[in-house]
Amino acid sequence: MRIHFSRATKILAGSFLAASFFASGYVAGQNRFGQPKTILHVVELKWNPTATDADKQRAIEGIKDLAGKVPGIKNIWIKGERMQPRDFNAAYAIEFRDRDAADAYAESKAHAAWELQYVPLREASVSIQVTNP
User: Fold this and answer.
1) Other CB atoms closer than 10 Å to residue 47's CB: what's the count?
2) What is the Cα–Cα distance from 95 to 67, expressed in whole angstroms?
3) 39: exposed, middle or buried (C-beta count within 10 Å: 0-12, 13-18, 19+)?
4) Ramachandran bin of 60, using left for φ above 0, alpha for ψ from -120 to 50, beta for the remaining angles
5) Which one, of 69, 55, 61, 70, lies nearest residue 119 by Cα?
6) pLDDT for 58-109, tens place per residue?
7) Which residues, in sequence order, are CB contacts of 101 under 8 Å at separation 6+?
8) pTM for the whole thing?
9) Ranges of each domain in the chain
10) Which one of 3.20.20.70, 2.60.120.10, 3.30.70.100, 3.40.640.10 gives the CATH number of domain 39-130?
């Protein structure tokens, strides 16, 4: 038994299929992102003119060591790609598991020891913390 469809039915079915393919492609192409509850601590640095390249490298590399000593640090970023204001020279970011971990970092002996080495090398710094509600 052969089923015959009218021309209008074929056009309607074709239009429906085309719209379905378009909609599925549109949905698949949408950006998907999350809003984690972690805390990002972002610091931008302007080095003191007397700081040597070796001093600067040790200060930035010290963040890796610091991350291993302070519980609750999830990730670090140690290479600044684009600075604003432009006369700043370096940047780093630390991702904390939560507010308690960020607070523990700020009060830790490891952070205090790192800052003793780092503070004389900086002329200025800007620091922000970012999280989601």
Assistant:
1) 19
2) 10
3) buried
4) alpha
5) 55
6) 998 999 999 999 999 999 999 888 888 888 989 999 999 999 999 999 999 9
7) 39, 70, 71, 72, 73
8) 0.74
9) 39-130
10) 3.30.70.100
